[in-house]
Every structure is written in structure tokens, then in C-alpha cells.
Amino acid sequence: MPEAPRLSRFARRLTGEMHAADDLVQETLLRAWRNFRQFKQGTSARAWCYRIMLNAFYGQGRKVRAMPATVPLEDRVLIGATSPGIENVEISQALDALPPEHRTVLLLGIVEGFTCREVAEILSVPIGTVMSRLSRARQSLRERLTRSEKVIR
Amino acid sequence: MNCKDIGELAPLYFSGELEEDRKVPFHTHLAECRSCAQQMEQQAAMDARLRKALCAGLPDAGTLERSVSRQIARERAGQWMLAGVAAALLIAAALGYRALRPEKLYRDAALDHLQEVVEHQPRHWRSDRGEIEALAARYDVADVAALAPAGYRLEHAKMCGIDGQPALHLVYTNGAQEVSVFVRQGGGSEPVRAHSVGSEHLARFRTARHEAVVVTAGSSGECLQFARVAAAVL
Q1: Structural domain span for residue A91
Q2: Mean pLDDT, rounded, for B160-189
Q3: CA B218 to CA B200: how far, in whole Å?
Q4: How far apart are CA A63 and CA B36, in angstroms?
Q5: Which of B41, B74, B101 is the last residue of a domain?
Q6: Which of A26, A116, A142 sits opposite B42 (nearest CB)?
Q7: Residue B71 shares a structural domain with residue B96
Q8: Residues B113 and B88 both lie in one domain
Q9: Are strands B190-197 and B178-185 parallel, antiparallel or unpaired?
Q10: In terms of domains, do B45 and B67 share one?
């Protein structure tokens, strides 16, 4: 299971809570194993796993998605960012303030390193949709970070 | 290529998916447009910050992986057990079906008797006593003459196939009526039961070592009596 650590990182970012993230990764890996026959040879197995994770996450309902708001900021920073610090706190906060669809494309495209085509495959949307979401998400994140820097100064 | 195009293609540029024929005009525009170049630089810097904040090091998923492996092993074991139970049920059902519904055995025996005994279609019958006994020995039948009630004598015999299995076909006669006895090996214990196919009467039974069907175009009573005698011997 070479993808487990990366899936774990993505799950922690998605759920904002370590136990919920572990459950999500476990569910993802088990679903991948149970449904391996559905995997199309020649496509990205890694992208397939992320797709399963997102389906499992959004399939779990609002309870999981609502979790980040209830987790103390200190915990969230430790969960999401690997090296706590004011810079990471700012980025973490700015990222979490984005709408879920923007946050997801940024995490997949920038943090997890998927191409736009792969993100489109994971989210089952046209590549054009991914491109426009990424552009808007980047712009939004940049604006939030700029605002936050101005406040600090 | 204008500033709007650059904005639209930026995601492909950053992910390295920009097609070759678009790369040159894209870079040419960036070289000529300070605003777009600045935007791309800021964007690249922000992506780098995001990666630095969230990508430095990966969580240890060892415990999680072991837990998933254990679960998969449990499910695999469950699947094998399920497959085993399903196979056992299928075999039991097939055996049960065969035992409880011997219609094909009845049909085959009745048809063989009609064609080979009543209609005398040519077959390679064995009439020599020694040959018949040798055949009977293959089916673990010691005394073929003793299978028939008094008044009947063994006419001839041959090997045949009924219900997809080899059987010994013995034909007895009392001068007026011919009776077929089909014997095949197979354990069990079922009493003599009467049956009929068309105008032919049949009686079937199973003993510890044999299964037999008696067929005659005569009466049902004669058929049953014949089968009871044979059952006592087999």
C-alpha cells in the first residue's frame, strides 16, 4: 500500500481530524481492494484511490465535513501542516476558508501533484471545469493571504 | 495569445500539461507582458508556499496499513469459506436432485425397454450364460438368475447407459412377458417404488450397493413383485 501515507495526508486535510482521517483511509483502501475489478487498466491507480476516497468522504455525509470547524486551531495546524509556524497557520486558515470545491482542486493539483487531467478524472468533471476552478481557487487563496498579511502588518 | 488566454491556460502551464504548440506563444506573451509574467511568478510562489506548508514529510500510515491488511485477510478467509459453503450446497443440491427426482432414469429405462425389448431393435445382446455372468460381475451382481421371481428365466443381457451412467441391462421372460432389469452401482437405501412412463410400468429401489429399475409392459403388480425379489437379492 505505497499510497497509504499520501492518502492519509489528504484525508487529514479533508476531515481535519486524525481519527476520522484514519477511518477514511481504511475505508478507501478496503473499497479499492473490494472493487479492484472495476479499476480500468491503463489509468492511474493513484488517481483511482483518491477518487474512491472523495466518494467515501462525501458519501459519509455532512457529519464528517462539519468536523473541521469544531477542531481547535492548534490541532488543525498540526494535522494539516507538517511544520507549525505562523506561515503555515496563515496558509492553513486561508485554505480552509475556501469553498470545498476550490480547496479540493488545490489540494489535488498542487499539494498532491496531480495533473489537471487526473484531477478531472478523480472528480468526474470536464478538464475545463478543473482549469477554471483552479484559477479561481488560486486567485481566492492569494487574495486571502494578501489580506491576512496586511492585517498582521 | 492575449492576457485572457494566459489566464485560462495557466493551470495547464503549472501542471506541465501545456501542449507543445502552445508553449512558444505562451512564453512569448510572458516575455512581452510584464503584468502576466508577474501574475505567473506570484502564482508559482504561492503554490510553492502551499506545498512547503503541507507537503514537508508524510504521516506514518504503518498502523493503518497493518489494520487494513488484517481486515483484507479476514475478508479473504470469509470469501473462501463462503465459496466452500456454496460449493457444498450446490453439490448437495445436485445429489439431492438426482436422488429425489429420478425422472430421467425412469425415462431412459422405459425408452430402452421399449426400443430394445418390445420393438426388438438390433442390439449386441449377450446370451451366453458365462458372458452374462462376467458382465454381471462388473456390476457386483453375483447371481443374475436369482433376481427374477419363479417362472422367469434370463433371456439375454448387455451393457447400456441410462441417466448418464453405465448400467447392466438384463432381460427376463416368462414366455408371455419380457421384463427389463437395469442395475447400476451406487449406495443408498430406498424401498421399492412404482412408477409409470406411458404404458410401461416401472419399479425402482436402492440397496446398500445397487440402484435398480424394473420395467415391463405387463402389469404394475408383476413389476412390483419382480422388483421386491430383485431387491432382496441385491
Answers
A1: 4-152
A2: 89
A3: 7
A4: 42
A5: B101
A6: A142
A7: yes
A8: no
A9: unpaired
A10: no
ipTM (interface pTM): 0.78
Please judge whether A111 and B54 are an interchain contact, meaning their C-beta atoms are less than 8 angstroms apart: yes
Same domain, B8 and B96: no
Q: How many structural domains does chain B have?
A: 3
Together in a domain, B48 and B87: no
Is there a single domain that holds both residue B69 and residue B185?
Answer: no
A interface with B, Cβ–Cβ < 8 A, is 1, 4-9, 12-13, 22, 25-26, 29-30, 33-34, 80-83, 87-88, 91-92, 95, 106-107, 109-111, 114-117, 130-132, 134-135, 138, 141-142, 145
Residues from B contacting A (CB-CB < 8 Å) are 7-12, 14-17, 42-43, 46-47, 49-51, 53-61, 64-65, 67-69, 71-72, 75
- Whole-number pLDDT of residue B80: 79
Task: Give yes or no for residue A112 having a pLDDT over 80.
Answer: yes
User: Which grid cell is B1?
Assistant: 495569445
Q: How far apart are CA B228 and CA B148, in angstroms?
A: 9
Full domain range(s) for residue B161: 102-233
- Domain of B122, CATH number, reads 3.30.200.100
How far is A1 from chain B, CA to nearest CA, in Å? 7
Residues B133-168: tens digit of each pLDDT: 999 998 999 889 999 999 999 999 999 988 888 999
Please report how the helices B34-55 and A86-96 are oriented relative to each other, as an axis angle in degrees rounded to 10: 100
CATH of the domain at A102: 1.20.140.160
B65 contacts in chain A (CB < 8 Å): 1, 4, 29
Domain match, B21 and B70 both: no
User: Under a CB-based contact definition with an 8 Å cutoff, are residues B212 and B188 in contact?
Assistant: no
Supply the mean pLDDT for chain B.
Answer: 87
Q: Say if the Cβ atoms of A116 and B58 lie within 8 Å.
A: no
For A5-48, write each residue's pLDDT tens digit: 888 888 888 887 888 888 898 889 888 888 888 888 888 888 99
Query: How far is it, in rounded angstroms, from Cα B11 to Cα A115?
Result: 9
Domain total in chain A = 1
Model pTM greater than 0.90?
Answer: no
Starting at the earlier edge strand, list the strands of the sheet with B178-185.
Answer: B153-162, B165-173, B178-185, B210-216, B200-206, B190-197
Which chain A residues have a beta carbon less than 8 Å from that of B51? 110-111
